[in-house]
Amino acid sequence: MSEPLKEPNRKFVLAVDFDGTITRYNVFPYANEIMPHAAKVLQLLHELGVVTILWTCREGIFLQEALDYCRKQCVPIDYANENLPEIVSNGSYARHKVYGTMYVDDANAGGFIGWIVVLKLVCIQLSSGKYSGDRGRAQQVLHDLKSGKLEFLEEEKPCK
Questions:
Q1: Are 31 and 65 contacting, i.e. CB atoms less than 8 angstroms apart?
Q2: CB under 8 Å to 152, separation ≥6 — which residues?
Q3: Residue-wise over 8-27: b if at least 16 C-beta within 10 A, else e?
Q4: What is the residue-level pLDDT of the chain in tens, covering all 160 positions?
Q5: Pick among 3.40.1010.10, 3.40.50.300, 1.20.1740.10, 3.40.50.1000: CATH of 13-153
Q6: Predicted model pTM
């Protein structure tokens, strides 16, 4: 069996829905309470080198409200309903479809899997070396999760 192709300069792109995924309830157009662990997990993944795209049906003022909500909740968003410039510029992906390494949505088969599971799945990928990012720290997060050490989710960090 051959070893998987490794692209250490390839970014891990997390496409995240807003209503019912970052927020607890899917009650468009109202933004309600934040989903447990959403902000902390997305902050940590951002620190690990993950690119986050807000992937939502919201447009115009409703999209701006979602972005403002994320900013106030300290949820880092790199792009909204658009691909990374390098994806668009090389023509490798359709402009009308957001490319993601992983898609996080409450409409997944089986429903939303929860932010701790998202953290674990992304850290598994980052620690494999297939993507750019802080491989060592991703491995430490996996170790902490396995050991039940979740203190890093409780740490208060100032919103940047």
A1: yes
A2: 40, 44, 141, 144
A3: eeebbbbbbbbbbbbbbebe
A4: 444 444 546 899 999 999 999 999 999 988 899 999 999 999 999 999 999 999 999 999 999 999 999 999 999 999 999 988 887 766 655 567 888 999 999 998 888 999 999 999 999 999 999 999 999 999 999 999 999 888 877 776 667 6
A5: 3.40.50.1000
A6: 0.88
